[in-house]
Amino acid sequence: MALNMWLNHCGLIVAALLPLAETAANDNAAAHRVYCNLLTVASIPYTTSGLNDDPNNAFSTMLAMNFSTSSNDWTAMFDTSKEAVTPKNPPEEKTPGTDKETWQTMWPQWWAAGRRCVTEKIGQGDKPAYPPISKPEQKKQAHRELKKLIDGTKHLVAECQTVKNDIKTKKTQLDSYLSEALLGEQNANGLPTPTKGIAAITNWGSACGPNLRGKSIAADFLCACNNNQDTSKQCDPNYDPQNWATGINVAEKWPLLKNSCKEPLAAELTAGQIHGALATFSAALQHADSGGTKYTFLGISSDHQCTGAAAKLCVDYTAYFDKTTGHTATKIPWKEKLEKAATTITVLEAKALEGRNLARQIQANFHVCQGIYAAAATGTLVDSVNNAISPLKPSTTDIQKPLAITKRQTQLALPLAYGMSLKAMRTKNAH
């Protein structure tokens, strides 16, 4: 896989370094390939790795299981059999005067848990997914153990939601970076706008002259493929250029120039693809010394001048480079946007991995809750806990020391009673 990526990368650079002066027709084909490559990576959609609603669904079911094991006095306050919308406020006559704020905050969640018992048939209904727990002592023990797990899962759910929010924010940033790299800032209707995405549209010199390039890939691409002398096809046989001695119709020419690029879009954008396209661009740049100054440009020119004439159709990037060494001195605006996009993709991938790990922990706790509920429903939860604890009772000869041991042994025995491995319990406790 890595070898194939390296070979593809080398192929792109070799293609970019093919002689720029090929023939009178298509003599700017190499620059066309470079800009097509940049256009492609800026157009590939990025899909965030799947963080679905399973963690929230699992936690909601945990809350519902806990609700179903509450006392009859408590569950009787929630008539969820006919309502489909969660009430925002608790009934005044049932709200304790000393705890109104907590009830106001928690009531929608409590009601939703009760409603989920109805919709998911937890402890009620025909053919319930979770059979009712008939024995009071089993129900009480289940409620205690479920609450412990829920309390230990709340922060995982909160962290998972934070990650999802971060991913959403970063994805919006990524889309903005890619759009602005391709079309410039304040682009509209898929076109670069004058002054923001392209310096001007009145003529080649006003759009593509010194200190005017780099606003967008689209603008530089148009500068490389439309001269101000004639309509010869210097970039690609499938693109009919416009003589840019006068105003260019960007709404017509930009879609045509885009369509002249033959590279199919990849299924998903990666940071490596962006870095590869930027490396291809850097490798294709030409340098020429004149009067002690090193000029940097992309396209065709017999010297270093980019005038827009057919023989000097190039994009001058000298202003972005050190004029002595030829090294990059400042960021080309669209290049900086692509670099930020690549960095953002790396962050998104790390966030997605973090979210998946949190989701797995929540799901594991959910399965433990299912085991607790099932044991209580079959009448074995209390017996399992007692059987795990009873052999560990302290002796009567020395109360203090055995008590400390018993507490630790109990912690180890409980997961065994619920069918958990010690390793799984340690993992859960770590979170």
Automatic annotation (TrEMBL):
Signal peptide positions (record): 1-23
Chain intervals with Basic and acidic residues compositional bias: 90-101
Domain Trypanosome variant surface glycoprotein B-type N-terminal: 13-363
One of the record's GO cellular component terms: side of membrane
Location(s) in or outside the cell: Cell membrane
Residue runs in coiled coils: none
Top-level taxon in the UniProt lineage: Eukaryota
Keywords, ordered alphabetically: Cell membrane, Glycoprotein, GPI-anchor, Lipoprotein, Membrane, Signal
Residue numbers spanned by region Disordered: 82-101
Record's bilayer topology term: Lipid-anchor; GPI-anchor
Main subcellular location: membrane
Function per UniProt: VSG forms a coat on the surface of the parasite. The trypanosome evades the immune response of the host by expressing a series of antigenically distinct VSGs from an estimated 1000 VSG genes.
Name the UniProt record assigns to this protein: Variant surface glycoprotein 1323
